[in-house]
């Protein structure tokens, strides 16, 4: 059996799970409601203060879905209980970030500012890092997958470049730096 799929998921107080016959799972908690369509073959049941995910057989399809559905269910429970955050650093001379209503406005070296619209259930906030004084964009919400997708799309607007390290990167991300040209010595020159 899947080691991940066998692990029970703790169910916090105030969180309810409902599953329909077609496989739709709804998780409701203090932060909101998440719904997702799963395979109706995999059984999700509550037993006391835990949630168990079980598969009907050892077929390849059921084995591959077992751990996946267990992890997605645990992420949904964690999201409606505590929520998720993702932080991005904006590094570069003149690079700025600001929030105007539900829109994130980035100035990252283009001739125009780039606007990112917040999707439903997602919030942006910007603060300066006290040590480096670079803007840090914080993305918060209850859906882990959606937060990760938005963070990846924002990072894609100006990926960190390897020579000076400027661009948008995840907080704590290590960017491998390259050495620039040696300059002046060797190569073609006057004789």
Question: What features would you describe in this structure?
Answer:
The chain is α+β, with helices and mostly antiparallel strands. It has two domains: 3-81, Ribosomal protein L6 (Outer Surface Protein A, domain 3, Alpha-Beta Complex); 84-170, Ribosomal protein L6 (Outer Surface Protein A, domain 3, Alpha-Beta Complex). Helices cover 21% and strands 36% of the residues. The chain has three helices and 13 strands, in the order αββββββαββββββαβ. The strands form four sheets. Strands 11-12-7-13 form a four-stranded antiparallel sheet, with helices on one face. The protein has a three-stranded antiparallel sheet with strand order 1-6-5. The protein is elongated. It starts with a helix and ends in a 21-residue tail after the last strand.
> Can you count the helices?
3
**Structural category:** alpha+beta
Report the helical percentage: 10-25%
Q: How many strand units?
A: 13
Q: Topology of this protein?
A:
Blueprint: H1 3-6, E1 9-10, E2 16-19, E3 24-29, E4 32-37, E5 43-47, E6 50-54, H2 60-81, E7 84-91, E8 96-100, E9 103-107, E10 114-117, E11 122-128, E12 135-141, H3 144-157, E13 167-170
Antiparallel strand pairs: 1-6, 2-3, 3-4, 5-6, 7-12, 7-13, 8-9, 9-10, 11-12
């Amino acid at each position: 059996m899947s080691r991940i799929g066998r692990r029970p998921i703790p169910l916090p107080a105030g969180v309810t799970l409902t599953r329909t016959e077609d496989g739709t799972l709804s998780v409701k908690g203090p932060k909101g409601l998440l719904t997702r369509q799963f395979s109706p073959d995999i059984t999700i049941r509550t037993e006391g203060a835990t949630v168990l995910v079980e598969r009907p057989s050892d077929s390849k399809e059921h084995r591959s879905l077992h751990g996946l559905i267990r992890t997605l269910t645990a992420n949904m429970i964690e999201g409606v209980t505590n929520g998720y955050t993702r932080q991005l650093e904006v590094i570069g001379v003149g690079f700025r970030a600001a929030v105007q209503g539900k829109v994130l406005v980035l100035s990252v070296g283009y001739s125009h500012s780039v606007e990112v619209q917040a999707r439903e259930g997602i919030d942006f906030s910007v603060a300066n890092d006290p040590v480096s004084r670079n803007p840090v964009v914080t993305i918060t919400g209850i859906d882990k997958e959606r937060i990760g997708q938005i963070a990846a799309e924002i990072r894609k607007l100006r990926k960190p470049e390897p020579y000076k390290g400027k661009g948008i990167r995840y907080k704590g991300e290590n960017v491998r730096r390259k050495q620039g040209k040696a300059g002046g010595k060797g190569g073609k020159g006057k004789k």
